[in-house]
Amino acid sequence: MQTDRLHMAIQKSGRLADQSRDLLKSAGLKVQATKNQLTARATNFPLDLMLVRDDDIPTFVADGVCDLGIVGLNVLEEYRLGDDQDRCEIIARLGFGRCALKIAAPADEEFTLDSLQGARIATSYPRLTRKFLDEAQIACDVVTMQGAVELAPRLGIAAYVCDLVSTGQTLEANGLKPVHTVLESESVLVRTLKTIDPVKRLKADALVTRIDGVIATAESKYIVLNAPESALADITRILPGADAPTIMPLMGHQGHVAVQAVCQESVFWETLEELKDAGARDILVMPIEKMML
Ligand code: PRP
Ligand code: ZN
Questions:
Q1: Pair 18, 142 in one domain
Q2: How confident is the model at residue 83 (pLDDT cuts 50, 70, 90)?
Q3: Does residue 62 sit in the same domain as residue 104?
């Protein structure tokens, strides 16, 4: 790896791998498709990707081996609890890979948090689990497992589990039910707190700006509509997450205006119905391809 290129750690395979690559693609990066390789190079930006196990990403970024990384908040927070100093910072929440670390109990059991007292709980997230138990003042043994945590109750390893839940299928298939959320998670963009060379730093900032733009456009829509001037106050209030809209007179339609606005939140059918009820007509909602804030 060349030292003048940015290094970013992303998951090699697994729940975040494809979406991490998609995000970079949306940010305009062309990355070689690789199979069974540890690195991949962007051909139109000074960036090398390191394709690694998600659990290794926080270490690589904290140690400065990688300048940036995309990782689940769950993995990052587990790492941070074991690190004596904070050596990486979250610079953006990416909105994909949403899941939650949850405590689960046998589906047929009447559960309260008190049930955990004196019991055993299996998890791949021992630090987050321990922190939760300590804060709730629950004395419960934490059994660390690297995978297949959902099998622990059936194997008699532990009565309860603390595991990642996304669709909930894994728990259900194993006769378990979620009973308490320990951490809500999604993928985040992280940056090393080690000093990076100023030139690389500029490149990193440029890439982060692009990624911010991609995140912003994912939810944003451009809305155009016509309305009577008297309805403007109502309409501006209804437009979701819009800054000051542009208002233009409509030729030949005294008292009517065209309104244009960038909405930074999802625009639902319900929103359009509300706008129409408020007096808006000819409402157009358009996707935004690129945005730089
Ligand atoms: C997690 C978790 C479950 C599954 C839950 O594993 O350990 O096995 O996902 O997902 P579901 O609610 O949609 O069924 P993950 O895929 O992250 O793999 P890992 O345990 O190897 O990191
Ligand atoms: Zn993992």
A1: no
A2: confident
A3: no
Distance between CA atoms of residues 168 and 279, nearest Å: 43
Domain-embedded: residue 293: no
Ligand 1: which of 76, 125, 128, 166 to mutate, most ligand atoms within 8 Å of CB? 166
Q: How confident is the model at residue 2 (pLDDT cuts 50, 70, 90)?
A: low
On whether both 165 and 210 belong to a single domain, the answer is no
Give the domain CATH number at 194.
Answer: 3.40.190.10
Closest-lying ligand 1 atom to the alpha carbon of residue 170 = 14
What separation in Å is there between the alpha carbon of 180 and the centre of ligand 1? 17
Q: What is the pLDDT of residues 217-248, one digit of tens each?
A: 888 899 999 999 999 999 999 998 888 899 99
The answer on 138 and 274 residing in a single domain is no
Atom of ligand 1 nearest to the CA of 172: 14
Same domain, 133 and 161: yes
Q: Which long-range contacts (CB under 8 A, 24 or more apart) does 20-26 make?
A: 20/70, 20/187, 23/70, 23/94, 23/96, 23/211, 23/214, 24/49, 26/214
Summarize pLDDT for 34-79 with one digit per residue, the tens. 777 899 999 999 999 999 999 999 999 999 999 999 999 999 999 9
In a domain, 241, yes or no: yes
Residues 127 and 243 placed together within one structural domain of the fold:
no
Ligand nearest to the CA of 58: 2
Ligand 1: residue whose CA is nearest its atom 7: 164
> How many whole angstroms from 49 Cα to the centroid of ligand 1?
24
Number of CB atoms found within 10 A of residue 243's CB:
9
The whole domain housing 60 covers 6-96+187-217
Q: Report the separation in Å between the CA atom of 24 and the middle of ligand 2, taken as the mean of its atom positions.
A: 21
Single pTM value for the model: 0.85
**Residue 242 Cα to ligand 2 middle (Å):** 38
Edge-to-edge strand order for the sheet containing 47-52? 39-41, 47-52, 6-11, 68-72, 187-192, 88-93
Look at ligand 1, atom 20, and give the residue with the nearest C-alpha. 147
